[in-house]
Design brief:
Helices cover 44% and strands 0% of the residues. The protein is mainly α. The termini are far apart. It has a domain at 49-86.
């Protein structure tokens, strides 16, 4: 190169490529907050229609008890419909 020819701009370093796909690693990592008993239980979603007033009462009561509405309703259903014992 001669003195009158400008140098091409340097490329900025992007960084090294991750060893594994970060999204896959995140999805497959073990959740540190989950309890082993809860993580081992298979769950299925149940959808029911309720009036807005009933939904509001459920959410208020759950908040007052310091639990989620889902946890409160799961406990209620377990209590009302226990697993049949032979």
């Amino acid at each position: 190169m001669t003195a009158s020819t400008p140098k091409p701009p340097r490329r900025a370093a992007i960084g090294h490529r991750p060893a594994a796909d970060p999204a896959s690693a995140w999805v497959h990592r073990e959740d540190a907050t989950a309890t082993p008993a809860k993580a081992a239980v298979f769950t299925a979603r149940l959808t029911i229609d309720v009036t807005p007033a009933l939904r509001g009462r459920i959410k208020v009561i759950a908040f007052q008890l310091g639990v989620t509405a889902a946890d409160m309703l799961r406990e209620l259903l377990e209590r009302e419909y226990p697993e049949a014992r032979p």
